Amino acid sequence: MSSNLKPALIVGLAVVALMLVGVACGGAEAPEPAAAPAGSSDSSAAATAAPAQPAAQPTAVPPTATPPPEATVRPTATPAPTIAARTAPTPLPSSGPKHGGTARMSAYADTKDWDPLGSSSLSSVISYSQLYNQLVQFDNVDVSAVVGDLAESWEINPEGTQYTFRLHDGVKWTDGETLDADDVVYSMLRYGNPCNGRGRSGLWRQYAVPVEVVELADKADCTATNADQVVRKIDDLTVEFNLAFASGAFIKFLAIDYAKILPEHLLSQGVDLNLAESILEHQATSGPFILEEYQSGNHYKVNRNPDYFKEGLPYFDRIEHFIITTPATFIAQVEAGQIDASNAAANNLTATENYDLEKSTNSEYVAHDVFGGATRGLMLNIKQEPFTNHKVRQAINLAVDRQKHNARALHGAGRGHCPLVGLANSLEECETWPGMRPKDTPGGQEDIARAKELMIEAGYPDGFEVQYTVRQVGTYAAECSVIKQDLEEYLGITGPIETLPSAAGYAKYGTSRPPDAKGDWFIACQADGMTVFDVDAIYAGIFLKGATRNYTDWETPEVNAWFEEQKVELDPERRREINREAERWLHDFSDNHWVSLTLGRNFWVMHRDIKGFNAPETVQYGFKQEHLWFDR
Amino acid sequence: MRQYAIKRIGLFIPTVLLVTVIVFVVMRLIPGDPALAILSADDAGYTQEELQLLREELGTDRPIVVQYVEWMGGLLRGDFGTSYWWGGPVMERLGERIPVTIELAILGIGLAVVCAVPLGVLSAIKPDSPIDYLSRIFTLVGISIPTFFSGILLTLILIRAFGWLPPLGYADIWEDPWANVKQLMLPALALGFYDMAFIARVTRSSMMEILREDYMRTARAKGLAERLVLSRHGLKNAVLPILTISGWQFGRLFGGTVVIEKIFLIPGVGQLLIDAVYQRDFPTIQAVIVIVALSIVAINLLVDLLYGWLDPRIRYA
What we know:
The complex is a heterodimer of chains A (632) and B (317).
Chain A: H1 5-24, H2 44-48, E1 102-107, H3 122-128, E2 136-138, E3 146-148, E4 151-156, E5 162-167, H4 181-192, E6 213-215, E7 221-224, H5 227-230, E8 231-235, E9 238-242, H6 250-255, H7 264-267, H8 276-282, E10 289-295, E11 299-304, E12 318-323, H9 327-335, E13 341-342, H10 351-360, E14 365-370, E15 374-380, H11 390-399, H12 402-409, E16 415-416, H13 427-430, H14 442-458, E17 468-471, H15 476-491, E18 497-500, H16 502-510, E19 523-529, H17 535-543, H18 557-567, H19 572-588, E20 594-599, E21 602-607, E22 610-611, E23 629-630
Helix pairs in contact in A: 11-14, 12-15, 18-19
Chain B: H1 2-29, H2 34-40, H3 48-58, H4 64-76, H5 90-125, H6 130-144, H7 147-162, H8 177-211, H9 214-221, H10 226-255, H11 258-263, H12 269-278, H13 282-310, H14 312-316
């Protein structure tokens, strides 16, 4: 080749290489800013227009419960925080529900537990929810209403302290055994036993007569001594629950997907249903789907339960769940049409990426908003130096920049919030509090100055080095980076960020649970996905001893007193006032372990051909997938 | 040749023993208590008695020598132990996953060799030609891009240019060979991309060196056709370094599928290893590392034996 041609050839090849990179990096369209369309607060429930349920469907039967006299049951309706909603354009189905098809869904993380006992893991409940039933569940259309699941009906006594559930007759476990009151009583007493972790399956404990055991210290003898006073079998199809006080929230905690009824005939023989292998071996489930295969870290597949007690349900023949933890993989698989939906309002994508996915697929896929999403927080291990010093914690609460956290980590899709997430003081009100104010305002500058003073008072004028821990899911890593920047810039707190897979992260946080252990972590970025849309869920999720995200079992008499007072308060205004006071105290951080950051937005991505979906009120329920069907 | 083979096999055994000792000791030296990891996974918390009981149950409270001897005893019987995390035999899960990883590694190295050798030979016999420039650019890019990035890049190109990706999941090659090939071709290409570039470079330089040898000139002078000169005298002599590199790279591929398996959701050993590391599941980690190490040592042995067979000078040395 002539030497004159060499440079031309090299230039030509370089151009080709650049073009290749151009193709790989996407089309000509510039990415849109993250601005979420404001305005309509229309929920996607209306837009998705779920199909009419089959006439024979037992769950369509309204509970025959006699509503308790209003005065005796504490109203739980709480105004929702004002966070702008998006409308999700989903076309109407062309016909009624159709059976058949294999849905391919993505799971945002691997399953940690297959047994709901003590479980607080979202990735786990998504998996086992399809296999088992609760007594009651949230309705698929009116997503805040509680309807029967295994319970055909229920009654409440006039005082509102006794719930009597009547079970569907003829329900069978898939191994042929009958599902009856014994299973319900056994399962509920497991969740209620104080020797066992409360997790989310035992959240109803807060309202029920407490289970007492022979010797709780060191779990010496966990035999319940008052089982009949808590939950008892009346006959094979009737179960009675006794509450410590009248509560409308009680039934909501029974309705979340964690409160599953498991087979007593296996558990009482010591079978460990926390292992997928064990579930596969014994095949005794009751839910709409049957576990066919599980490969840790990779996938699990479920098949339709042909003998499901709800006639006509489920619609899909099979669901294949692929564990996709990498956002790029999820986007690529959706764009290639390999994935029909995420199996929850969690897909590890930022808000902007979710919006962009709608655009890049020409709205073939819809990112449905779930409002009662996750309250993002910074967990401080109060058993470890220097977080034993409340002034350090107070300084951190003042120094973190919620606006920056929202803008950079959540792409502006969330909103800064106080500890009770807008369910006590309004978000507008709490945005004026110290620590909440933008850092570029005089108020924000005051907050930084005060935070520095507190660090000096605590003996850390130059800050300190500490390890941050995050689970490799969602936007946690990005969130921790933003927080780290703030704390480094304002307080000199620096250190590496350790990222762990989901289950390993939970295990690490759990090391601080025992009273005599400090735990292996110091500061962590985590969210608490609200279970039900009630302030009790925030207390039970974060601020009570044994709460889901209270890994150090931090406890103060003040918060306990406020919680106990508000949970039995019948007057909603008075209840709100109690919670306002509690929230101000929590935010003041004279003692607290959880720095509230931002109320995030979660998205449930679904192909427009999937019908029967209505976004739930919170991220923690709606995983049975029994009402979904393909309109193809 | 027999003596040479015996000597090589004789070296194989102490190497494997050394690997088992290193793996076992290192696992015990790294921070993290398996019993603690298991108990912490439950929100209920635990007591010190429960922790001690679990340590006894797992056997992690015993002296390290006792643990090693017991583990080796099991290993010799083909028993890799019981997983700390899920309680079943380690071999059960490994048995499902090893074939997947082996298949992926074989496809990766196969693709690499099939593409790299002709490219390297072409590049060597036509130096400074467009094909040589193209090949050099390709190999430079190939060895510069990390495997995980080439995986993502390939995915993006397929998506943007064709709106297509291989089907998710893994179909057994004996049950659905076509689906299996469709699923594994892209990850194998991503996995073998680096090796393709590396082997092509080695082939080129090795071939260029051979082309300058006297016997090549002699072969041409004898009037042999160029095709025969290149294949019989050129490539055959250039194959030794290619073989070494390919063997070594195959071992590397077998142990290095972790990221690719994650990106393409391939249920292989890599994913299992990651989970096991985070769960402090010593028996699983040890089993995976020993198997990977054994494979690499075995491949090296095979390459050494092939060397001896291909080049008599080596076995007589």
